[in-house]
Specification:
heterodimer, A: 365 residues, mainly alpha, two-stranded antiparallel sheet, 12 helices, 4% strand, globular, B: 390 residues, ABC transporter involved in vitamin B12 uptake, BtuC, 14 helices, 64% helix, 0% strand
Chain lengths: 365, 390
C-alpha cells in the first residue's frame, strides 16, 4: 500500500514538474509566435504593419483603461467600447455643438468651433486646436460621467458584494443604454470631425500614412508612458496597484479604497475619451463602433495579461497588427476574406485562453 | 395567497397584459378578430423566446455559466434547422449546404409535413450542444468573465463565417422560403393558431424537462457549485464536468429555440442575429423575470417582449415627429435602464428563485405528517423567500 501511495505521490510530483515545464514551454512558444507574427507582417507589408501599429496604439489606450478598471474594480467592463464612442461624440458636440434634428442638425449657438481660428489646420493635420480643446472637455465630461455611473450603479453593487457576473451584466445594460443615447442625440448616420479628403504622406519602405495617424501613434504612446509613470512612480499608482493585488489588504493598510476607485474612473474615463476621439479620427463617429472595438480591446488586454498595464500595451499592438496583416494572408490558396478581420481577434483570444490564460506578461488577479 | 414581495410581480404582469390587449384593440377600433391575431403572433414569439430564456436559465440560473453569446446558438440553431428542411439549392445566386428536405420525406404518413422538421430541430439541438461542448474546453475552466468574452467572440466569428463563406448558407442574402410544419393542413389564416399550439407544446416539454432537472440531484449539484465552487469540489463533485453539462444542455435548448424561430419566420438572414436582438434581450428577460426560476424565465420573456411590442404600438398614435423617429432608440434605452434598475432594486427578479428544489422533499411534505417528531426533513422549514442576492 505504502509503495503504491509513494508511487502515486511520485507520479503527481512528476506531473506537477511536467506542468511547470509545459507552462514555461508554452510561454516561450507564444512569445516566439508573437514575435514571428510581428516580424513577418512587417516584412511582408510594411504599410499594413504601420497601420496596425496606429490602430494598435488606439486599442492600447482603450485596453489600458479596461485593464486598470479590471485590476482595481475587478470586473470586465462591457460598456468600455460604448463609453469610448460616447467620448468621441462628446468631443464632437463640444467642437460643433451639433445634435441631430428632425430634418437637419440643430446647432448650439456657441461651440469651440466658433473660437478664432479654431479649425485652422495645425501643420499637416486635418484638424485645428479646437479638436484638442474639445477632447479635453470630453475627457472631463466622460470622467465625471464614469464617476457618476459608479456612484449610481457600481457602488451599490459593490456594497452588496455582488459577483463579477452581476457587474458585467450591469455594464452590458449600461452599454446598451449609452449606445441608444448616442443614437438619440446624434442619429445613426456616421459623422466625421472634419469633412473632406486628405492625402496621405509617403514614408520609407512604402508606408503610406496620414499625418493624423502619425499624431495618433505619438499621442497614444506618450499617454501610455504617462500612465506608466503614474502607476509606478506616484503614491496613487502604488495604491491602485495595491488594490489590484488585494483589495481587502489595501483597505486594512489604510488606503481609502473608494477614493482610489474615483481616481481610477477619472483616469480610465479620460483614457476612454482620448481613445474614442482617436478612433473616430482613424475611422468615423458611429454609435455601432463601440461594440465592434470591444472584442479586439479585450483580446489585447487578455493577451498581455489582464490587469497588467504593460501587457495591455503589448497585447493591443499584437492584436491590431495581426488584424491588419490578416488582409494579406493566404489560406489554402485563397485570399482571406476581409470580413474575417474582427474574427482574427477572436482566434488570438481563444489561442491565448487555451495556451496561457494568464497572458504573455502575467495577469494581476 | 400573495405575499408582500409578490405585488410588483403581479402589477408588472397585469400592466403588460392590459397594455398588450388594450392598445391594439383601441387602435383597431375594438375589432377583436385582429386583436386575436395580434395576440397569437405575440404569444408565438414569447413562447419561442421563452425557450432561449429557459436555456439561459439552465446555464446561468442553475450553474452560473456566463454565456454572453446566446446569439451564436440562436443563429446556429436557426440555420441548421433551415438547412435541413429546405429544398436543395438551385445554384447560381442561391447556394447553400444541406437542403435535405426531399430526402427526409419518405412516402409514408405524409412524412414531408413533419419528419424534416423533427430532424431539423434535433439537428439544431445537437449542433448547438456540440458547439457548446467544444467551446467549453478552452473557456469553462476559466473565470466567468473570460467565458463571457469568449462567447461574444464565437458569436462574432460565426457571423463572419456566414457572411464570408459564399457557398455555405447564402451569405448576406440569408435563407428564404423555409418550409413550415403541417402547413398544407390549414388555411394560411388559421396556420398561426396551430403554430402557437405547436410552440406551446414544445415549450411545455422543455419546461417540464428543465423543472425536472432542477429538482433532481443533478440540479442541486449545479446550484451548489454556483454558490460555492470550492465546497462542491471538496465534496467530490467534478465541477468542470457539471458545468460543461449545464452549458451543453442549455445550448441544446437554445438550438430548439432557433429551430422554432426558423420555422416560424420562414427566413433567416445574418443581419437579424445581432448581439442586441440575440443576446442582450434574453439576458434582460431572464434577469427581470428572476434567474434560477423557470417560471421567472417565462414571466421575464412575457414582460420584456410585451414592453417591446407595446412600444411599437405607440407608433400608431399621433406623436411628435421628433419622438416618433427616435422611439426605437428610446426603447433600447428603456430596456437597458430596466435591466440596471432590476439589478439594483430587485436583484432576485420578479419571481425569486425557490430555496428548496427537491422532488423528493416535496413528495415527503405532501404526505400526511408521521407521528414521530423529527422525521420531517429540516428543509421543510426553509423560508420561502429567495436566496441572498448574488
Amino acid at each position: 500500500m505504502t509503495a503504491l501511495a509513494r508511487a502515486r505521490t511520485f507520479a503527481q510530483g512528476g506531473w506537477q514538474e511536467l506542468r511547470y515545464r509545459a507552462d514555461a514551454l508554452t510561454a516561450t512558444l507564444l512569445w516566439a509566435l508573437v514575435l514571428s507574427l510581428l516580424v513577418a507582417s512587417a516584412l511582408s507589408s510594411a504599410d499594413h504593419f504601420a497601420v496596425g501599429l496606429v490602430v494598435g496604439s488606439i486599442y492600447a489606450l482603450a485596453a489600458l483603461g479596461l485593464t486598470l478598471i479590471y485590476g482595481v474594480l475587478r470586473f470586465a467592463n462591457f460598456a468600455h467600447g460604448d463609453l469610448m464612442m460616447l467620448g468621441a461624440y462628446l468631443a464632437y458636440f463640444a467642437l460643433t455643438g451639433a445634435v441631430v434634428g428632425t430634418r437637419q442638425d440643430v446647432h448650439l449657438p456657441r461651440a469651440l468651433e466658433g473660437l478664432p481660428a479654431a479649425s485652422q489646420r495645425l501643420g499637416d493635420l486635418t484638424f485645428g486646436y479646437g479638436l484638442l480643446l474639445a477632447t479635453l472637455v470630453s475627457c472631463l465630461a466622460l470622467a465625471l460621467l464614469c464617476i457618476g455611473l459608479d456612484r449610481l450603479v457600481y457602488r451599490p453593487l459593490r456594497r452588496r458584494r455582488a459577483g463579477v457576473v452581476i457587474f458585467a451584466v450591469a455594464s452590458l445594460g449600461l452599454a446598451i443604454g449609452l449606445r441608444s443615447l448616442m443614437l438619440l442625440l446624434w442619429g445613426p448616420n456616421p459623422r466625421l470631425f472634419v469633412e473632406g479628403v486628405f492625402p496621405a504622406r509617403h514614408f520609407p519602405f512604402g508606408v503610406l500614412l496620414k499625418s493624423d495617424q502619425v499624431f495618433t501613434f505619438a499621442l497614444a504612446v506618450g499617454l501610455a508612458a504617462l500612465v506608466y509613470l503614474l502607476l509606478f512612480r506616484t503614491r496613487l499608482g502604488k495604491a491602485m496597484r495595491a488594490m489590484a493585488d488585494n483589495a481587502d489588504l489595501a483597505r486594512v493598510s489604510g488606503i481609502d479604497t473608494e477614493r482610489v476607485i474615483v481616481w481610477t474612473w477619472l483616469l480610465g474615463g479620460s483614457l476612454m475619451a482620448v481613445a474614442g476621439v482617436l478612433l473616430a479620427l482613424q475611422a468615423q463617429l458611429n454609435p455601432q463602433l463601440g461594440f465592434v472595438v470591444l472584442l479586439p480591446v479585450f483580446a489585447g488586454a487578455i493577451l498581455g495579461g489582464i490587469g497588467n498595464p504593460l501587457g495591455a500595451l503589448l497585447g493591443s499592438l499584437v492584436v491590431a497588427v495581426a488584424q491588419e496583416a490578416s488582409v494579406g494572408w493566404q489560406l489554402w490558396g485563397h485570399q482571406l476574406d476581409p470580413t474575417y478581420k474582427p474574427g482574427v481577434a477572436f482566434i488570438i483570444l481563444i489561442a491565448i485562453l487555451l495556451l496561457r490564460p494568464r497572458g504573455l506578461l502575467g495577469a494581476r488577479t | 395567497m400573495i405575499g408582500r414581495g409578490r405585488w410588483p410581480t403581479l402589477a408588472a404582469f397585469l400592466a403588460v397584459t392590459a397594455a398588450v390587449v388594450i392598445m391594439p384593440a383601441e387602435r383597431s377600433g375594438w375589432a377583436w378578430g385582429g386583436v386575436l391575431s395580434f395576440l397569437t403572433a405575440f404569444a408565438i414569439t414569447v413562447a419561442i423566446y421563452s425557450l432561449f430564456t429557459l436555456g439561459l436559465n439552465v446555464q446561468w440560473g442553475y450553474a452560473g455559466v456566463f454565456n454572453f453569446g446566446v446569439v451564436a446558438f440562436f443563429m446556429l440553431g436557426a440555420y441548421a434547422a433551415a438547412a435541413f428542411t429546405k429544398e436543395p439549392a438551385a445554384g447560381g445566386f442561391d447556394t447553400y449546404v444541406g437542403g435535405l428536405g426531399p430526402k427526409l420525406s419518405p412516402p409514408f404518413l405524409q412524412s414531408e409535413e413533419w419528419l424534416p422538421f423533427l430532424v431539423g430541430a434535433l439537428a439544431a439541438a445537437v449542433m448547438c450542444g456540440l458547439l457548446a461542448y467544444l467551446l467549453s474546453f478552452p473557456a469553462l475552466r476559466l473565470r466567468e468573465d473570460y467565458l463571457a468574452i469568449a462567447t461574444i467572440g464565437i458569436a462574432e466569428l460565426m457571423r463572419n463565417v456566414v457572411v464570408a463563406e459564399r457557398g455555405l448558407v447564402n451569405s448576406e442574402r440569408g435563407l428564404k422560403g423555409i418550409p413550415r410544419p403541417f402547413y398544407s393542413f390549414f388555411s394560411p389564416d388559421d396556420y398561426q393558431y396551430f403554430y402557437l399550439l405547436l410552440a406551446l407544446a414544445l415549450l411545455a416539454l422543455v419546461f417540464w424537462a428543465t423543472e425536472r432537472a432542477l429538482r433532481s440531484p443533478w440540479g442541486r449539484v449545479l446550484r451548489a457549485l454556483r454558490e460555492d465552487e470550492v465546497a462542491t469540489a471538496a465534496s467530490g463533485k467534478d465541477v468542470t464536468a457539471f458545468r460543461r453539462q449545464a452549458f451543453v444542455v442549455g445550448a441544446m435548448v437554445m438550438g430548439l429555440g432557433g429551430a422554432a424561430y426558423a420555422y416560424e419566420r420562414g427566413a433567416v438572414s445574418p443581419d437579424t442575429f445581432t448581439h442586441f436582438a440575440g443576446t442582450f434581450i434574453f439576458w434582460a428577460m431572464l434577469i427581470v423575470g428572476g434567474s434560477g426560476n423557470n417560471r421567472g424565465a417565462l414571466l421575464g420573456a412575457y414582460v420584456v417582449w410585451g414592453l417591446w411590442i407595446v412600444s411599437l404600438q405607440l407608433l400608431g398614435y399621433p406623436l411628435p415627429e421628433a419622438l416618433r423617429v427616435r422611439i426605437f432608440y428610446l426603447r433600447d434605452l428603456v430596456l437597458g435602464a430596466l435591466l440596471v434598475a432590476v439589478l439594483l432594486l430587485r436583484p432576485q427578479g420578479l419571481l425569486p428563485e425557490e430555496r428548496r428544489v427537491s422532488l423528493w422533499v416535496e413528495r415527503l411534505l405532501r404526505r400526511p405528517a408521521p407521528e414521530a417528531a423529527g422525521t420531517r426533513p429540516a428543509a421543510g422549514r426553509a423560508p420561502t423567500s429567495g436566496p441572498p442576492p448574488r
